[in-house]
Amino acid sequence: MAALIDRFTKAKRVVIKIGSALLVEESEGQLRREWLLALAQDIALMKKRGQEVLIVSSGSIALGRRILKLKSGALKLEESQASAAVGQIHLAHAYQEILGEEHLTVAQILLTLGDTEERRRYLNARSTLSTLLELGAVPVINENDTVATSEIRYGDNDRLAARVAQMVGADCLVLLSDIDGLYTEDPAFNPNAQFLSEVTELTDEILNMGGGVRTAFGSGGMITKLKAAEIAMAAGCNMFIASGKIKHPLLAIEKEHAKSTCFLARDTPRNARKKWIAGSLSSQGAIIIDAGAEKALQKGKSLLPAGVSEIRGKFERGDLITLLNREGKELGQGLSAYSSADAELIIGHKSSEIAKILGYAGRDEMIHRDELALK
Fold first, then answer.
1. Strands, DSSP E only, in 222-351?
2. Are residues 217 and 311 in the same domain?
3. For residue range 80-94, what is the model confidence (pLDDT) as tens digits?
4. Residues 95, 39 contacting (CB under 8 angstroms)
């Protein structure tokens, strides 16, 4: 079991998903402050050992509906959005206050489905999150329920958490739930159901173990967690399902004080991303690079504008483009940080000159090494 726990304790970047049923008291609709304070202490310990932490949090609708005194039961879409607008302010303030007691800087990020599915918006969100992590902040992410509609929303934060983990190249995703892991059947109905501590492949048999929703505030269930596991594992990210009903739930995973199910990824986030770049997108253009840039790429460096001598085709920021050397040999592919129009203006120039040439401070790299798949 220790080897499984290492997937959590030795992960460089960890995404933690917190469900509404854990964060908000179901009977009163009040925030569980003592539980959140214990979680903040766990996160502070993770930060002290050098781990980067992101939180994907539910709870804004559950909090907001109490403040607005809305009736119990299912809400209309517009009532959910109104509740989210009110609840999000209170939720963000609670995170700022409680994590602040552990000297943690908190940032609020609201995402919609389009922010993680559409490449240019995806790159913007990824860049913002990466910068916040580099600066030592803890991003707290929620679906932007105030503007998302039933047709374009996630509907459950398990899948959103998996997309965030994929976006930032996280090594580990932890879904804190009202259940302590995956069972062969729902233990609420079958006390003889077998617990699975490790899953290495999402077979049809495993996927058929998903169940329904049992809480008033939750919008997910085991099936949404298994769908999240599909996304995470494909991105090279290990995933844990663990109970959040106890105080210090992250410490409980680390110390093996509580059960958890670990879904083991076969690849690293970096390799998985490069495979996605190399095999899942169509090239929209090409750039010619000089010999110095080619050598730098082989050493694992990013591609800078100074090493580019020619732009071919028309493409937009975030599009996949092909890299060629001066002899026309294909070297690989990558996601461009600039449109072809802007790239034409900055090629051959130093990164320090980009802002003066374009009138805005863009990325230093034409293609960042994490967005590059060489042959």
1. 238-243, 260-263, 286-289, 308-312, 320-324, 330-335
2. no
3. 888 888 988 989 999
4. no
Q: Is residue 176 domain-shared with residue 82, that is, in the same domain?
A: yes
CB 225 within 8 A of CB 175: yes
Backbone angles phi, psi at 140, to 5 degrees: -110, 115
Domain CATH code at residue 364: 2.30.130.10
Q: Is 3 exposed, middle or buried (0-12, 13-18, 19+ CB in 10 A)?
A: exposed
Q: Tell me the pLDDT tens digit for each residue of 130-169.
A: 999 999 999 999 887 666 555 445 557 898 999 999 999 9
- How many folded domains does the chain comprise? 2
Are residues 305 and 253 located together in one domain of the fold?
no
Question: pTM of the predicted model, to two decimals?
Answer: 0.84
101 and 181 fall within a common domain = yes
CA–CA distance, 375 with 271 (Å, rounded to integer): 13
Paired tokens of 37: 């304070």
Mean pLDDT of 36-40: 96
Q: How is residue 168 written in tokens?
A: 């930032």
Task: For 270-293, write each residue's pLDDT tens digit.
Answer: 888 888 787 767 899 999 999 999
Which H or E element spans position 306? Answer: none
Q: Is 226 in the same domain as 285?
A: no
